[in-house]
Amino acid sequence: MAARCVLRRWCSTAAQSKGTRWERLQNKRIVVWCRSLLGDYKEACREVVVGSWERPFKASAYIGLLGGLWACYYTNPDDTSFETSLLEAANQLGLLSPWIRNGTSDGHVQSLVRLRNEGRLRYASLGVASLAYRADYDPAVTLYEARCSFLSVPWRELPDRVLDVGFAGRWWVLDAKMKDYDVNEEEFQRLPPALAATAPPSAQETEKNERLHEESWKPLIMSQEVIDQAESESAGQDTQTQTDVQTETKGTVVTE
Length: 256
Hints:
By secondary structure, the protein is α+β, with helices and mostly antiparallel strands. The chain has helices at residues 2-18, 21-26, 29-54, 56-74, 79-94, 103-118, 144-147, 158-161, 172-177, 193-196, 203-216, 224-255; strands at residues 121-125, 130-134, 162-167, 170-171. It has a four-stranded antiparallel sheet. The longest helix has 32 residues, at 224-255.
């Protein structure tokens, strides 16, 4: 009994001298480091808020820049979108006759399709933009020239190998090449001088012709006034015809 009391007294004295468990946990190095780190972040956030309040235009510029970078990163096209756009362009050209295809569009798409079939089409993401470029060999090729790092293409030749640039959800070079893909420019080079000098129709004239063409397919709708007027004119023409017939008949009888 006496030993138990002495042990209990000794444990209570040691606990009082060292403090509670929560106090010992707060005094650990990792806890002190985390507390100082949170304090630094708190002070940095407070300075950001105060600086934004004091300089609103500068803060708006930084927020707009960060928002633009996030939008570019979110809409950055990947290799799947490039292949999808390439196949769609190839299908659009395939639906046209070779005589009316644009030579520039057809040549660019055919070269990309050939590189894709050969496995030489590469894709690189830069975070906010993407690049599509050509390589010399397929990744599955095991030739010495394709595997040796000393024979690889240097970075300074990369701009000459870039085929397209993806930014803001679009592949800009492919879209530019596919503009007027159904207009063959070579077809207009052999026109007579008088016809070649003729100015093309303006946008207003083209829109007017398209509107008139669409209206020509609509059903004819006549108002009641127009119908009554047409009936009266038809009745007047019938009466005049009968009068002319009677006059001719009387003239024939008198002649006989």
